[in-house]
Amino acid sequence: MKWQKRSRVPEFRPETLHVALSDAAAACDGQAMAVYVWNQDMEPEFPLAVLEYTVRGATDPMHWHDHFEIALVEEGTGTFMFGRRSLTAEQGDVFFIDNSQPHVALADQGMPLRLLLVLFRPELLAGPGCREMDLGYLAPFRVDERSWPPRVRGTTDLAARLAPVLRDLREIQERRDPSERHLADATLRMALALVNRDKGAVTAGATRAAADRREQIRPVLAYVDGHCRESITLDDVAEVVHVSPSRVRHVFKDVTGVSFKEYVTQVRVAEAKRLLLSTDLSVSEIARAVSYTNLNQFYKVFYRSCAMSPGEYRRYYTPTGGEPAQSPLAAAAAAR
Description:
The chain is α+β, with helices and mostly antiparallel strands.
């Protein structure tokens, strides 16, 4: 079956494409967790930064940022925390972190954790009106964490191929030669293309056939991502991909493991989370922004996904005191 998307460009394409299926493990337990905004300076015309960062102990605060992050563990062992969920970090591991996910890296006691960080804004690869193919480069950041944790194990063939590409990107950026921007762009795309080609290395039991079938529904995923602030029906999507609604429903559930309606809900909740953390819009305004006219229904859906209300989520993941937060990187630089 071959689906083709219409050439019409969506009027709205949210930057946050990650879909968090469940944040139940990050349920509010009555204790405050201040999450800081990591503000990374990047050139507006080429928003990419590659740097080395050493974590010592567990002193860095939980933080989030408006750029995507690829983290390669160059040395040491530790833990990456995503809210209250944790993944071990060992030499060679590669982590993919989206642009609204609260997280922090912690080093094991007595052993520094040295990271190579690749930071970029999504518009570098997939700006408004981009090709469908360009949106695909961001796929490693918008995964179902139940079946595909945001980590490539250092013991896999994929990690062995990724590491030298990421180090090449660091060397290109260190030369600070504007004439090499095309090379830097191509190298970043190469790293993400390797992950897209080899999803089976990070998804237990995944097969090439499953990867191919997921490519079939990519236009559907892109349409939902681009229209999450609007009313979306199965008939609308079926018209876009030129397949019957029943066929879309069947293939979508078969490939993703969730129903089309549930996926739309997940995308809207993910966008609501981003708005809660990055704007001062009221909860009711955010509910309307993600196409919920019934506020009670929005609260119910949000709580079912996150095990906390929208207001609790905002308080739980927002710095206290009202002062602009300093990034861990800036704090480390100031301490030297």
